[in-house]
Amino acid sequence: MITESPKSPYLLIDSRRLDPGNLFVPVKENSRLSVECVVEGGAPAPGLHWLLVPPPGAASPPGLSPAPSSSHAHNGFTASIATIPRVLRAHHNSTVACIVTHPTLPAPLNASILLDVQCKSNFYFLLFNQSFITNLLFFLLLFTVLNNIIQLWTLIPLKILKKYL
């Protein structure tokens, strides 16, 4: 049996090859993301596997869904498509990695991208996506600060205010 090592993998999004130097891929929150991993050569055909790695210290976001026909070989190329059906804020700074295994390789090859999730402002997230208690505490703090400012303003004599206005 003749064996041939596969070449380094590369990734495609929307049928466009990603620049290996481009680490970040912007993707809109709540959109669908499909990433294709392509490897040239390899006899027998290499195995292609997917990983979704959360950023350090973060909980694991919902995973990748490999396409039903996990990988296919055609004209000397092996390819696999993985999809995140709905990109969430939790996917921000997660790494999508394609891992290539083959009997001739001393260690697996890989190609990866870092997700830059474009989402609504953090202020919006603070007000509408956190717990009710967090929102209540935020508004109480805001009310207290504003109330204190108003009380201080009323204590300043009009004579002093006219001097600075």
UniProtKB/TrEMBL annotation:
Domain Ig-like: 6-110
Keywords attached to this entry: Disulfide bond, Membrane, Transmembrane, Transmembrane helix
Annotated TM spans: 136-156
Protein name: Ig-like domain-containing protein
Pfam families attached to this UniProt entry: C2-set_2
Keyword Transmembrane appears in the UniProt entry: yes
Presence of the UniProt keyword Cell cycle in the record: no
Signal peptide bounds: none
